[in-house]
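During the reporting period the student researcher (J.K.) took over the structure-prediction task from the postdoctoral fellow and processed the backlog of single-chain submissions. One of the processed entries is reproduced below for the supervisory committee.
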Amino acid sequence: MSFQPKFPEGFLWGGAISANQAEGAFNEGGKGLSTADVVEYVKLEDRKHMKFPFPTSSEIEEVLQNQSQKVFPKRFGIDFYHRYKEDIALLKELGFKAFRISIAWSRIFPKGDEIEPNEEGLAFYDRVFDEMHKHGIEPVVTLSHYEMPLHLSMEYQGWQNRKLVDFFARYAETVIRRYKGKVKYWITFNEINSLLMAPYISLGILRDQVTEENLLQTKFQGAHHQFLASAKAVEACHRISPEAKIGCMVIGIINYPNSSHPEDVFTALQDQRNTFFFTDVQARGEYPAYTERFLAEHGIQLNKEPGDDAFLKEHIVDFISFSYYMSTVSARPESSGEEAVGNLISGLKNPYLEASDWGWQIDPVGLRTLLNLFYERYQKPLFIVENGLGAFDKVEEDGSIHDPYRISYLKEHIQQMKEAVGDGVDLIGYTSWGPIDLVSFSTSEMSKRYGFIYVDQDDYGNGTLTRSKKDSFYWYQKVIATNGEKL
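J.K. obtained the following structure tokens:
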């Protein structure tokens, strides 16, 4: 008799967006400027050698003085701020059990260092959560998703400053207390391991605030402060809302060795630690043993205060969540080969895999492997909170949008999730990325679409913002209705 794995009853099917890519209304409701609000749109022809934004404070000052000549897509998003009722109704029609969103920190504390929160911002999320509950959708809420009050970057030098730990703790306690009973699932920092690649986006650190020689030291010091802030959010959640669960979140990457050469294999192990280091600290509550050698060899001395390690140990997360878009190939330094590109991550091309329009290596089986690795390592519930295919979509003359490539991508990944559940992995949910088209995080464009729902808007914010259903809408609707049995 063949074994037929099944998703558990009550599995949290849904989708995920972030405030800075969807909400818009950047200057309404008392919101302050965030680090995402000053990231410009870059034309395709100017993007060939583009790195992730790492501006200086003077460059940001210049942006603020010449705003009218530039396009800032994350300021307008897809106008979820005004259209959330329409959007949530569409997600209800899809059959969503859960919807992952983020709270814009600068809507609650516009500058980040205030004592009292902004009531208009708090009230907005009350309305959003009430609307979700009206439709039977469980909120999954990220506290920090690639944005923070810009003032904290400009005045405090971002997360390299320990003062941000307490600013974040005040923000986390404020929203956890406010939405007690409305939010059962919290996530602290989105893709926290991205700080190794994108110090401005993840840590709010500006290029003139750190030297090249001191950059790695600054990243790991910022990581320590975010670990403490995450632990403070965990403590607040367990104290204020003990019925809720709170987790960490990382970019989920599986690293393959380029060959069976022992040095390639060890390089892949070391690269895998760029993920596991961050889950080790938050899920086990301590710095892993291999960190000591890494820090020493790179001349990194973490500034810790008495009690830091004990606090991390005492306040560990309830579950581990992660994004999964690709795998990567690791090789010893002297190896050569064609590079693959990806969101924050790069490595050698894998000859056995196809790639997306943006060069990301598509690897469904890698998701099953990673789920098993995470679960064997931690024995904690897992939650896939981002996964999807960014692609160019075409609207036909009759208004239909055929996206078989998206259906194929998601079908293959969901099948491997099911296999992992059959392997014994405790998987509690799956929220695909961008169920409604939104502004891309990595390129700030609308052309790169992930959604089941099409949004009529171009890269410059032109369009009617009309929402329409793609073929994948009806496919995913059936997947949810059958709890993953009909793919």
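The committee noted the following: The domain at 12-481 is CATH 3.20.20.80 (TIM Barrel).
J.K. will present the remaining backlog at the next meeting.
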